[in-house]
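Notes from the 1:1 (GR / supervisor)

We went over the backlog. Supervisor wanted to see one worked example end to end before approving the batch request, so GR pasted a single chain during the call. The sequence is below; no edits were made to it. Supervisor asked that the structure be written out right there so they could see what the output format looks like.
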Amino acid sequence: MARSACTLEVRGLRVLVTAGGSGIGRAIAERLLSAGAQVHVTDLVGANVESVVKANSGLVGSQGDASLVEDVDRVVADVVSQFKGLDLLVNNVGIAGPTGELDRLDEADIERTIDVNLKSHFHFLKRCLPLLKASERNPSVLAISSVAGRLGYGHRTPYAATKWAIVGLVKSLAIELGPQGIRANAILPGAVTGPRIDKVIADRAEALGVPLDQMRQSFLSKISLRRMVEAEDVANLALFLASDQARNISGQAISVDGNVEYL
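Structure output shown during the call:
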């Protein structure tokens, strides 16, 4: 039987978005909420949680450090108390990490990048997968990787390593969870406009000893469309992948980057 016209159906979907208080995470949370989903965000910065909750009626949130097991336990308990289950986990949390030659990077900065960008995904998955397995609403995992998860990225090795790992994690999860009806996909954003990419560009300019304007132009010259993307571009793809229209899309790593040619 032919399916009806495309409708991104997520009404009532129970969603947890990590690092959902600002940037890409907030854009995803607000996009899903506007489409009728029930959304809980968590964020390291309490003020970010307060801001997004205050600005969006019906959205709820918890402050917490995604790299700390005790905080993850508390956040997931909050979600269960509020929603009585979960249909979509958006593992979005991540930091830029240090910039520089690998042998000169601080060990603590490397470890923090791995803890936040990768271990946090495992922390949430271990606790949320039982909830997803009990869901009857097209359950899925959506992980936010990066264009640095498909291209080498000199002077950003800890960050790139974690983002490549997320892609491998998602592809492996898709195989493991597919027989139980759970999908897993990754979104790979490119340079997203905002304070974070501004700092990345500034740090890289300093590390390589080049003018800031030259470094910014260098970033743009590597993008086929010669422009950065918006957080809303990522949120729109997240909405599609969460919907019933994407019910047979799993194990994919999809870029939203204007076609970054190299890093």
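Supervisor's comment: The longest strand covers residues 183-189.
Batch request approved.
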